């Protein structure tokens, strides 16, 4: 009996050693966190050439970061953290600015234990939307296809997450955008799609989201239109377009301006220095509209990072592209 207890003790000790080593390995993978003070994580504002946002703080060789959004007051920062090379490892993290000092990143309050990404906060800061593979209500298994979930801010607390419904069912979509009047723009694959993925719109009327409507061939093609950013006033939209013949890389960012009469100008490649031979996606604007954020992934190495650039690079295109 004593021998068995001794054997069990040895096994338990070995397990504790393994767990300790694994914990140390994970801790070593964490990006170095230093005290950050001021707006935009205390980073020096970019010029007209895109640069990595918060290098060495959000990511390193083992931990990656993509898809970012600031709260309207600039005091909260949300992004997706993942383990490089591990598919489905993405989790939503956030940082808060307290007394002008940014607190170390931690999982977002509404985040689940399943793969999640593509979050977007409404212009008024009251709703958070994101893409999740978590089980839908009354189900226990992870979803094969992602759905859009949302949480409502109740004072300083996010409500229990709920899947978003439209008249034809749960909204199965990706990276969306929210306008001032609550309209959602998003990429999806539906029966009326022209290609591998199209851009749709769902209006928010009397507290209900309408059936998604395709934006039409002026925006959508037989290729894939994906991640997008829409100005809060719907004056322009920026879309990640995949595999187009004129692309510089596998996916490039394109822009379209609203003509004020319900229509859009034809998408035009943002060009250099935003697009290059790699992949560009996850476009978003800072709350004050001064900076443009996006993700760039090196095709050769698979490594990607969040970039930012002065939003004047978009203003300069307005006179070139006639709405």
Task: Describe this structure as you would to a colleague.
This protein is mainly beta and 323 residues long. It contains 2 helices and 27 strands. The chain has helices spanning 2-29, 312-318; strands spanning 36-37, 51-52, 63-70, 76-83, 91-98, 101-102, 106-107, 116-121, 127-132, 147-154, 157-158, 162-163, 165-166, 169-170, 177-178, 184-188, 198-202, 204-205, 208-209, 213-214, 224-230, 236-242, 251-257, 268-269, 279-285, 291-297, 304-310. Strands 1, 3, 4, 5, 6 and 7 form a 6-stranded antiparallel sheet that branches. The chain has one domain (46-318): 6 Propeller (Neuraminidase), CATH 2.120.10.30. A hairpin with a 2-residue loop joins strand 13 (165-166) and strand 14 (169-170). The model is unreliable at 10-27 (pLDDT under 50).
């Amino acid at each position: 009996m004593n021998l068995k207890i001794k054997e069990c003790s040895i096994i338990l000790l070995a397990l504790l050693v393994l767990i300790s080593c694994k914990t140390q390995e994970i801790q070593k993978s964490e990006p170095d966190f230093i005290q950050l003070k001021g707006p935009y994580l205390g980073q020096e504002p970019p010029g007209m050439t895109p640069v990595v946002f918060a290098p060495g703080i959000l990511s390193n060789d083992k931990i990656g970061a993509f898809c970012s959004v600031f709260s309207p007051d600039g005091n909260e920062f949300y992004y997706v953290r993942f383990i490089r090379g591990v598919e489905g490892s993405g989790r939503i993290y956030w940082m808060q600015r307290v007394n002008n000092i940014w607190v170390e990143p931690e999982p977002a309050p509404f985040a689940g234990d399943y793969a999640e990404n593509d979050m977007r906060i409404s212009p008024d800061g009251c709703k958070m939307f994101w893409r999740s593979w978590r089980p839908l209500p009354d189900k226990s298994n992870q979803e094969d296809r992602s759905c859009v979930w949302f949480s409502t801010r109740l004072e300083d607390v996010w409500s229990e997450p709920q899947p978003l419904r439209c008249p034809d069912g749960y909204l199965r979509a990706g990276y969306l955008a929210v306008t001032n009047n609550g309209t959602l723009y998003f990429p999806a694959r539906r029966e009326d799609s022209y290609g591998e993925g199209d851009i749709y719109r769902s209006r928010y009327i009397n507290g209900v989201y309408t059936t998604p409507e395709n934006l039409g061939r002026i925006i959508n093609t037989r290729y894939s239109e994906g991640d997008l950013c829409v100005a809060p006033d719907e004056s322009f939209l920026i879309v990640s377009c995949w595999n187009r013949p004129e692309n510089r890389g596998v996916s490039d960012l394109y822009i379209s301006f609203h003509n004020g009469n319900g229509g859009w100008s034809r998408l035009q490649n943002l060009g250099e220095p935003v697009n290059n031979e790699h992949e560009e996606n996850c476009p978003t604007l800072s709350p004050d509209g001064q900076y443009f954020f996006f993700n760039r992934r090196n095709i050769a190495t698979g490594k990607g990072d969040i970039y930012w650039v002065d939003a004047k690079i978009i203003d300069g295109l307005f006179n070139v592209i006639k709405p």
